[in-house]
Amino acid sequence: MMDLSEALQEYLALRRSLGFKLKSQESRLRNFVRYAKANGELRITSKIAVDWAGHQCGPATWSSRLSTVRAFARHLQVVDPQTEIPPPQIFPPQRRPRPFIYSDEQVAHLLKSMLDLHPGSFRGPTYHYFFGLLASTGLRFSEAARLLREDADLGAGMLTIRETKFGKTRIVPLHPSTTLALGRYAAIRDDHPVRRSSQFFFTGDLGKPLIHANPHFSFILWTRRAGLRQPEQRDGPRIHDLRHTFAVRTLLSWYRDGEDIERRLPELSTYLGHNYVSATYWYLTAHPDLLDQARLRLDARWEAAE
Asked: How many domains does the chain have?
């Protein structure tokens, strides 16, 4: 029987050779292995997996934690048949938070507020153009924050997004208005020699890349000023909802133009950097207008068939 720690190392190496990054999964599984060993378990059992999944965390993560162990157990059972694979559906499935779809006015107010919140600071224009890029392309926060200046070809109007969530690299064409906006930011950024020498497209005053905490704090301030979140409220609109907004608006535009959604959905999936088209289907249920468009199209087909 292989030691759980050694088995985990082999599992992580195998999955990463297939292109998976597994940052959060590795942390979880190392925590699980420590927990199992501390409780005297030498192999995975359903009981220890379920106990760990519900240990020192809220119900919202129980299902996903157990799913992480299930994947590891399936791998390990090949070499250790006595490994137990925890049964599914022990916990209620983890539910995605309902996305907030921003209006044009709210996005415009967000961008203006970044300048107002940081008068005289380089953070103002940086966050203004950073959030503008997220809204106009649907990029993930990390993709825009890690963007290198050499990967922003403003002459061709394209970004190269490297080593994304699923270890892939993709090309993201830009709308001309987005290209012009990024060009304005680049000119402001390069006014200072320290920022000009940075390898990153979006930088702080010292030329370092953006970290999540700083723009996120400014974003939370904006949601409160805009009345989208109460001062004591923890939940509310998220930065990631800019990505949802981009996807939903793209789909609505295609619906209204009479496009074949099934045919064009892989284009959106590729643009967003999804690993599978099925991940993009979720956006179809993310907004009532999309469901209404689907209903209207279905009604039209039924009427034509009668």
From this structure: 3
